[in-house]
Amino acid sequence: MKDLLNYFKSMQFSFEWGERASLWLNDFSSYPFTQETDLPWIQTKNSIQFVINPDTSGSYSEKAEFEERGKKHAAYFMNKDNIRMLWKKYQDILTQLQQYLTLIEKTDFSNFSKEQLLPYFKEFVRVSTETTIWYRATNQGAEYYVSKKIKEILAKYFEKNKIDEVFHTLSLSSYSNPIKEEKEDWIILLKKEKPVDDDFYAHIKKYSMFYTNIYTHVDLMKTIKSQYHLDKPKIKQLEKEQVLSQKNLDEIKGKKKALLEKITNDDLSDYLMVFQRFGEYRFRLKPGYAGIEVLSLLMLSRIGELAGMSVHDLHELLTIQDLFHFLETGKLPTQEILEQRKKCRVIAVHNKKMHILQGEEGIDFINKTIFKKERNLQTTGILQGMIACQGLVRGKVRVILSTKLDEIHEIEKTFQQGDILVTHNTQPNMVPLMKKAGAIVTAQGGIISHSAIVSREFNIPCIVGIDSVTLYLKDGDYIEVDATKGIVRKLG
């Protein structure tokens, strides 16, 4: 690995995302970079994804390559045919996901052998990989040139000082999405006096992306029932929030209709789809890569039983190739390697080849490649990002790194109204925290990200896309979030 380290030490890297991920998820995210492809958003020769326990993690790509990939990605969606193609592709992937779920639901895995499990696991990996590849198509890189093109069109119809405001309104989605739908279904479930396990599991099945990082059926039931008892007394409050949310949606529809009546341009509706529908479909695709493991729990539990490992450890300590090798030969990595991976795991991709490092070797690799830059970064106390929802707020920072639902529930108990939520990127299970936040600041995301969509729904000032913001800001920092200029300032 010495040659690999020397090669990567000479590079500068750009931050992509930073949620704590299992080795599996890092594997799924890295695998597309090993493939020959014409798709610009996965054309990467050099990338690093890592976790150093307990909660240091990140995904980085070589800076120059990352910037070039972003330009190609943005240019790709200047072709309206590609926008329509992606829309159809998403429909196809959702169909594939449903076919897979139908297959495993009618299968009893309890006595399956490794040989019998192999084709099912292959299909699990295929669906997850395909979803991951196309989910990447709608990250913030897709927005850049399209947003400029839309503003050029708007300049023909509106005064210069109104263009940003009009663009912001037109880019808001007035369509439903899984987050809104989950809230509606959750209220229906809360109104049931004595829901049974089948009622709870039906909700988990429909909204599996809210229950990631839970690895047993017992823990799934414990988590959702705990939330049920927590929210049961809040039904009226939740219904009121739903009414306000629908009112906001109706107002957006009205404003957009009035603006669009002033514009006669055949291209605008296609370009606006990037903002109005891609964000929605990112949510709808999510169960295909973050949630599919919840829906596949019976199959994965049987694999774990044969391997002598918990489903949690399958995710955390084994690569996808490790699992294929086990199902084909019965062999697992040595206990020494597994113990090292409990400390640290790194996936580095170089020239289409994936390299796995672990333990102290992995920590040393990250220290000499990624952290050599991050630790030497000097800041004026001002951080610049992208405005997702306007406003100006001051408050104390709460850095949230966990995405586990049970841990989010515990954090909610001490999260104060008006705290500034700082995180890598918000997840659906963070919505209770987001509603209490005075402002939201994220390392990832564009204006079709989860953070942006939810912040606009609740009218919470939000700035997204501040690289490594969770390294700069700490719990208790007093900051100003100026989401009229896209600036975060440390005040003391």
In words, what does this structure look like?
- With 492 residues, the chain is of the alpha+beta class.
- It has 2 domains: 1-156 and 265-376, no CATH class; 382-490, Phosphohistidine domain (Glucose Oxidase, domain 1, 3-Layer(bba) Sandwich).
- 54% of the residues lie in helices and 14% in strands.
- It is globular.
Biggest pleated sheet = 8 strands, mixed
The first-to-last residue Cα distance is 43 Å
Tell me which oligomeric state these chains represent: single chain
Coarse morphology: globular
Q: How much helix, percentage-wise, in residues?
A: 40-55%
Count the E strands.
13
Average pLDDT value? 90
SS field, number of helical segments: 24
Number of domains: 2
Low-confidence stretches: 373-378
Structural class: alpha+beta
Radius of gyration: 23 Å
Spatial sequence of strands, sheet with the most strands: 6-13-12-8-9-10-11-7
- Beta-strand percentage range: 5-15%
What topology does this entry show?
Layout: H1 2-9, E1 13-17, H2 23-30, E2 46-52, E3 56-62, H3 63-76, H4 80-105, H5 114-135, H6 144-154, H7 163-171, H8 178-190, H9 197-206, H10 217-231, H11 235-260, H12 268-276, H13 278-285, H14 292-295, H15 297-307, H16 311-317, H17 320-329, H18 335-343, E4 344-350, E5 353-358, H19 359-369, H20 371-374, E6 382-384, E7 386-389, E8 392-400, H21 405-414, E9 420-423, H22 431-436, E10 439-442, H23 450-458, E11 462-464, H24 469-472, E12 478-482, E13 487-490
Parallel strand pairs: 8-9, 9-10, 10-11
Antiparallel strand pairs: 1-3, 2-3, 2-4, 4-5, 6-13, 7-11, 8-12, 12-13
